[in-house]
Amino acid sequence: MCTIRQATITAALLCVAAAAVEAAAQPADAPATNLTVSAAASQLPAEAWLDPTAAAWSEVESRQVALNRTPPLYDTDPPTSSEIASAEVRMTRASGKLLVRLAWKDPTDDEAVIAKAPATPPEQRRMKEHSEASNRFFDATAVMFPTNLSTGAVSPSLQMGDPQLPVTIYYWNAARGALLMSAQGRGTTKRSGESFPARGGYRDGMWQVTLELPAVPAGVPLAFAVWNGSQQDRDGRKYFSVWYRLQ
Amino acid sequence: MSRHQYAMVMDLNKCLGCQTCTMACKKLWTDRDGTEYMYWNNVETRPGMGYPRQWDTIGGGWKDGNLQPSPIPSIDDYGRPFEYDYEQRLFEGKGKPVMPTPDPISGPNWDEDVGGMNGDENFYFYLPRICNHCSNPACLAACPRQAIYKREEDGIVVLDQERCQGYRYCVAACPYKKIYFNEIAGKSEKCIFCYPRLEKGQVNACAAQCPGRLRFVGLLDDPESPVHKIVLAYKAALPLFPEKGTQPNVFYVPPFNPPKRGNYGKSILEDPRLPLEYLIYLFGPDVKDVIQRLEAELVRAQAGGRTEVLQLLIGRDAETRYRIRPDLVQSNPINKA
Distances in Å between the alpha carbon of B186 and those of A145, A169, B59, B244? Predict the structure, then answer.
């Protein structure tokens, strides 16, 4: 897949051609992609996997997932370059959970600790928590599944699902933590208000983030996304993968 | 198009820059976590940097039907809030002077009363600003979440805190930079034209507290309202930066100070205290007509005549300045009723 707005026409044609070859290599009734990510069962408990730097992760099969930059969504979007070409994905099953570790190179560490509003109402306090900044955005990542966990040939729209096939998004933000969201098309994303276990850390120019998700059966499509805070990424302004199949 | 449109007129000849409106608004709406740097209502010295700094030149608004790009101002562009260390002085006996922390380097109306030069003479005036509750709001158009909407019943532009995801496209799109991001809440927020007060028949807090009595509030489509009379009947007030294309519903009576040497028979425009070019920059070319119209009224009043528009602009009492009609807002359009 290509970011057409940034590619030459030749490159765009090559990109389309590559996708056609990819599709032709599959039987007619198979999903339109042979891109799979494996998740083998593990004897270790889920908590042991939650640390993205845990040694056990190095034993897990990895897959480089190509990331595409969304083209400018709005006329007012400043031009951006593609700075994050791919993310490394490793997955395992433990304690009835699916653990996903994403790692990607990002030269800028856009994270912060944002103060939480105290439980006491502001009118009962002399001091209020301050907004430290008004114009910063944070690094983030997400994994998206069809909400019904269908293994059928048809995947939801890559643009946040569609009314027929809503999606569930496990989103992790370097400042705001893990947020469970759902959507059924662009502009419909809703925060559930729920969280899920996740841990992330930035070291030596690289993010490593582990998301602990409920069990997801093999054959379900899933897609990955990365947001780069220094590029003012938020919303659909991000890096995204095509649909993969969980194995 | 909303069924009715609340509007405000501010007479810049009467603003004394006291910030009472700013404090009324702050105490009522932005005394919460994450909102210290926000002044939904602010008063800035003109010419000047403005709040946030250089908001009038950085972008946003419409051009040829397209939204225009703009950076999102930084917290230092607004002015980082600071606190005074009273504890050590008052209770800990350290004897050091009370000092602000962090060291202030910018703030709303930071360049108070600096103004500009007209020849070898200094000039300035105050510009109070709230959200313009535009008829063609750029913020609304820029939001991919449809979190911003214009109330059908009274034209007030509000931001749904449930739908907002804190993307801040609205902050960039507003050419007046009247939407603010609350980082603690992760959502943007803005002036709500005190709609909970209006719904109870009370005028906006900024207007109610104004000691200069310079604010007029009512429905633009109500022929009996002071804003209808000043803006549409007498044509004595103009929106700020009309060329930004958002069709504001806050209007300003431009400053029409007497001429520098009026005793010698000159008119305001022949011998202005404020350079006309600067007023044209703020209010567009129509400002010249408005000033001439007001000067003519002034001459009539000085000759012992009576002028309705100047009498109205004096705004002696609340009944003159405000016409808040929750009953009409809930009913059919006035002109069709």
Answer: 25, 19, 23, 28
